[in-house]
Amino acid sequence: MEAEIVVSNLTKCYSNGTEALRGINLEVKKGAFFTLLGPNGAGKSTLIKVLTTLLEKDAGLFSIDGINPEHEKSKIQRYIGVASQDNEIDPGEKVENLLTFQSRLFGLSTADAKSRTEELMDTFQLSEQRKKKAGILSGGNKRRLHCALALVHRPQVLFLDEPTVGMDPQARANFWEIINLLNQKEYTTIFLTTQYLDEADKHANAMALILDGKIEYDGTISGFKNLVSQSDSTSLDDSYLKFIQSFSK
Questions:
Q1: Overall number of domains in the chain
Q2: Parallel, antiparallel, or unpaired: how do β-strands 33-37 and 59-64 relate?
Q3: 190 is in which domain, residue-wise?
């Protein structure tokens, strides 16, 4: 299976000159459900921001489906969907209007935008919230709306940065059912960061572990468990903690 995201020696520096990303090399296969794991401050969100063109890299290369961001930034932005950690949603606008407006921004006709809005509100169980302003939604509904907004243009790659923070267990279960359908039925490539390792263990089929801005493992989840714990029946939580503890010694 060909790689959809290719990263080569990618470096990003903080304003003080220290490196947030230190020579990242990574490939994510087309149609994969990929998760990037690591502690807070390891570089996960920085890498996502670079790959989604929200931050400029300082060195190295990356491409998405062969698209070079240095020459075709707008093309990459139409190819991907992004649900970042920050719920950057106009708090004074209604759910229905936000989805319709976002659809129109991506070039859908008025009729298609309305149809896509109805489809996404139904999919993400937001129909009863349609007339509510985004600012008064619960944390879980805000996250679902944010993800729905990322999908209006049917992206080929969906970046999810800590997507289920603030969701109750039932909302989390419903959310992952939707994301798995996207991955399995529409072959959308999923690029996930999460601190809920049970989610990664259950849903992802490929992973990388980033520590201090460097990739320290890249492969399958079962391979990681076998490497660290000599058993793929061990929980990802246990293997992850064991690896982090051994790395810090």
A1: 1
A2: unpaired
A3: 3-247
